[in-house]
Amino acid sequence: LMHSTGVAIACLPVAAASVIGVSVPSTWTLIGLAASISIVGVPHGGLDHLTGRKLLADRLGSMWSLVFFPGYLVITSVVVVGWCTLPLATAVIFFVLSAWHFGFEDDRSRFHSKLADSICAIAIGGLVIWIPMLTQAEGVGSILQSIVPPGLSVLIPVIIQTSQAMACVFVPVAALVIARDAIRGNLSRAFRNTSFSLLFALTDVLISFGIYFCGWHSIRGLARLAKDHGMSPLQLASATAPLSLGAIGLAGLGMWFWSSGQGVSEATSRTVFVALSAMAVPHLLLHGPITEVVMKPACGGSESLEIVEATS
Length: 312
Known about the structure:
The protein is mainly α. The chain has 14 helices and no strands. The radius of gyration is 19 Å and the shape is globular.
């Protein structure tokens, strides 16, 4: 509750600063985003092998790694190929999966209908995507320009228009969910999602995404990792330290090239973005559909749903 309230309150002055014209230099935005993702964002998904072992070891024994790692790499490779050959389909699938994952792991209203619950998860979890698509399409387009191969950049307007059409469906659904929370007395949740909505609508895309992804989603993910795997904060920090140091090193190297005037080629930037999204997709699937499918045989009914929610 304290974390939720703190993040919600922090969103308001950032959004207000954007309204009155206070801007953060792009250099500091990139440095802050790189540092936050390196220290919090990357580590929160960097221990997926522990989750994979927990799901598969009881069924496959020591052979679990021969299923988990190749499967992880195959999904990653499919995403890379998708960005290069089918960017529209890849972008839409990536946005929907990301939205569903964010909502699935979030503190949100639950519905008895699995379909309704999934739709509302996509709506609430995807606010960080849907709202900027409607209010800051130009900024989103610039980011997509760095991802999509040059020969296929002509599809960027189509990606934006398709995403905006989805946003026109999901944003009203999210508004209804927020209203439902407020009516039912869950004011903290309603206040947080309202604050996020203002942040996403008014603030630079990279800043708002960094606050949401690192300050809310990833911190909750790290806390869940520690709980699921019985780690103390020190053990978790030790396990994720190599990932953080590696990410910081790469970010620092990129900043050095940029500040020295040598610049980072478009191909390098594109490779980084594609690689990050490609690594994200198996994480999204693992902490969602895969966990749900694997856990189903062991449990049934509402008990299965409770276990899935606890491990997601």
